[in-house]
Amino acid sequence: MNKLPRYCRRKLLKNGRWAYFFEPPTWARNQGCQVEAEALGEDYAAAMGRAENILLPAFDSWASGGLTDMVPPSPLPGTFDWLVSIFEAHQKWREIDHYTQRLYKQGLALFANHTLKDGTRAGSKHLSDFTMGFVDAVYAKLLVVEDRDASGNVVKRERRRFANAAMASCRRAWFVGRRAQETKVPTINPFSRMGLKTRAPGQPVRQTPTATWDELVAFRAAAKELGYRSVGTAALLTWEWLQREEHVFGAFDISHYRPKERPNSVKIVHPKNGEEAWWPLFDETGEPLFPELMAELDAIKETVVTGLAFRRDHEHRRSPTQLPWITERKDLRYLRRVVRRIVAAAQLRSELSFTSFRHGGFTEGADSDLTDAELRAAGRHRSARQLPTYAKRTRKQLIAGSKKRHDERARAALIGIATTLVSE
């Protein structure tokens, strides 16, 4: 038999079934406690939910003179709420960046705060009662939300990405909780292998907008005019070296660029997949492969002695020191606001983001007839599926790929000039 909460007991009825009752102690009744004895019914989950979430908090409030109302209640051990608290107190949680933590919190709260048919929260349900069918049923409810239009009519809409993210957060919490409390967290994770679809049948694939070279040029010009030179340089870097936003601003250290022991190379780091390599900056003849980008990085290296290369160098910044664009909690929200401001000033498509320039770099590489091996060498991908065999990255591939892209860029510029002359 499961352990019952305080002041709860079960009783065998004449029909042979068990029922549950809440009975405050005699001393409390004699002192005028307004929380009365109550029959909780035969459903164990519903009975325990009412006792733990309503009756006992009300009793404790009376007994403490309201002091317990000021203290957030601790989750009951063994419940999903408790699992969340274990996850958020674990070392694994502290290793997650701030942005992802915020997404995890939203997803965990979405599931935990879902009201079940018996009126209790999903978060108050004991982990031993979790089944795959139960999780699937809650997911189906979270997948669709009802809104009202301007006329007051009920309109249903799907929030698949949010619901999928919530399930992923719960899955991660269960695995971490299992490692931390293996005697209390069941082995089988009901959030695993749910077969989640990224989109509804017939729904088009959502793609990150891809920037063109001309849009990159316009963005960099606007960034320079607004005083955000480092952001303009970073945009060119992500285009040329295909690094992710969080790696450009959170992992690219100034010591990676042309250190004394390797003055003709740059260290490219991709923390997401653990890949890193030295990228050549000059070809076999000694010609620079990225003259414009290298000139700007050389200038940055003269002012930034140590630490992250890209910092808030605009004159109208609040702090007199040049802080990194990424915060200590791995937050890039301020940078993204600045990027939107630059995009607007350059009169570019509003849907463009910093990630659009990395996608533009990949697209330029494909349009320049780079091989799969050359693209993987550039983007540090392990397989062509991400951009069916693994190819070793070589210095020759990196140099050949860079040259192809620059040649294609020059050819496009010549075509543009010729078209202009003809039209005139």
Short overview:
This protein is mainly alpha-helical and 424 residues long.
The portion of residues forming beta strands comes to 5-15%
Residue windows where pLDDT falls under 50 for at least 5 positions: 379-394
Query: What's the arrangement of strands in the largest beta sheet?
Result: 1-2-3
Summarize the helix and strand pattern as letters. Answer: EEHEHHHHHEEHHHHEEHHHHH
Please state the structural category: mainly alpha
Summarize model confidence as the mean pLDDT.
Answer: 84
What overall form do the CA principal axes indicate?
elongated
DSSP, total strands: 7
Query: What Rg do the Cα atoms give?
Result: 29 Å
Q: Summarize the amount of helix as a percent range.
A: 40-55%
What kind of sheet is the major sheet? Answer: 3 strands, antiparallel
Instruction: Give me the number of helical elements.
Output: 15
Distance between the termini: 90 Å
Structure description:
- By secondary structure, the protein is mainly alpha-helical.
- It has helices at 26-30, 44-63, 80-89, 91-94, 98-112, 132-143, 160-180, 213-226, 229-241, 245-250, 291-303, 333-345, 354-367, 372-379, 395-423, and strands spanning 8-12, 18-22, 38-41, 144-148, 154-158, 265-270, 275-280.
- Helices cover 46% and strands 8% of the residues.
- A hairpin with a 5-residue loop joins strand 1 and strand 2 (18-22).
- The radius of gyration is 29 Å and the shape is elongated.
- It starts with 7 loop residues before the first strand and ends with a helix.
- Mean pLDDT is 84; it is low at 379-394.
